[in-house]
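Encode chain A's predicted structure.
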Amino acid sequence: MQILQALAVLLFVSVGALSLGRARYAWVKWARWGSIVIFSLAVLYALILTLRWALNRASY
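Encoded structure for chain A:
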């Protein structure tokens, strides 16, 4: 979970850094969208883990 949190923070910061730089190169645009996708997947994964935990706690 700590790795997931660190990855999410790193990706969030990289999205901000990439958006500050003007997208003159095609790889910058791909890197920005890739980091947005990975950040979204990390958030979705954390949400799924939270829901699974909550549902398991409710079954007791």
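The chain has one domain: 2-58.
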